[in-house]
Design brief:
single chain, 411 residues, alpha+beta, 18% strand
Length: 411
Amino acid sequence: MSFKIFIAWRYLRGAQGGRSDNKFLRFFSYVAIGSVSVGVITLLLALAIVRGFSQEIERKITGFGAHIQVENIRNSPLENASELRSQITGHEAVVSVHPVVTEFVLLRRTNQDIDGVGLWGTDALPSYLREQLLTGSTDLQPSTNAKLIVGNQLAEELYLQVGDLVTILSTRNLHNSESLLSARPRLKQFQISGIYETSLSDFDKTYVFTDIVTARQLLQYQSDEVSRLDVMLEDVTLAPTTSLRLEESLGLGVLVRSIYEVYRGLFAWVELQEAIVPLVIGVLILVAAFNVMGMLLMIVLEKTREIGILASMGASQSGIQQLYLFLGLFVGGIGTIIGLLLAYGLGFLQDKFGIIRLPAEAYFMDYAPVALHVEDFLVVMVISLLLCLFASYFPARIASKVSPMKVMRFL
């Protein structure tokens, strides 16, 4: 071990000594180390929560709307759905393609309990919704009555339970009628077979699911017509580029949008958090670096005599400067390590037990999600140590300029 590292460590331990004249310096060193730790903890937890929000929102949205949606550009049903489905399936990165028939309808439990909902007919219930089922079954195949799966928020508003019978009224054919007075909505009775909850209030309250055959019959779709095709990819990050390639290959009249385009506003909100929050919280580490600078200046004042003695014994200016750089690095290193450990521990507890609760109607989830990434820990560690090292440079320069002759005069 070089004398510079040895002396720097002794100086740091000396500031923790029991002498009464070291009490203030000891307190200031605690503040410096603690501020570095708090800055590291806050920044890491902010990054983890923002990343957790992004991943959870993306998982929920893609669980409903797939990675890519293919629709008719004229806002009418897609014809020749089987042919389009075969074309899309052949593209690279495409895992599955599901036809969807969806229209807004009226759902009636009693004459007083009526609400507008989006009827969603599909050949297979999205896997995400199967995971979020609260009660009942995901089986949509009709027996006596057609099956319907509804969101928990809608079920609470209309007092629905599994096994209840409801009526759906479709008005899709009314605008084609010559006389609105003689036109009648199409009616069909459904049995509630399941209730799901995703904490996405706009979705849980709006969408109800049934099998695609029943939806076609009720909404008067032809056997090869769909409202859209939902495309799932190997990786959601491929959605923007794949959607462009699909739009080119499918030709005119077909609108292809990635999930990031369909829900642009929601993803823009998440991206804003990812961009701004780390910058704002990162100021804490900068403040911590100034605390390290202040502590080192205090040690320079406290150890002026020792610095003069070292210089008189042959220590070079660069050697004394490096000594104080090592001292700042020790303070930053200890604070950073404590911050990393505490951040990981707090993040793990939040991920495991959901300690921080959130209002689901505002944040689309009932607790703050966290996503702990190794690269975040490495980047924050490096930034914290570099800032502490840079903050040590000014006090180190002052210490290296101490004249041994002036100091020796007062010994």
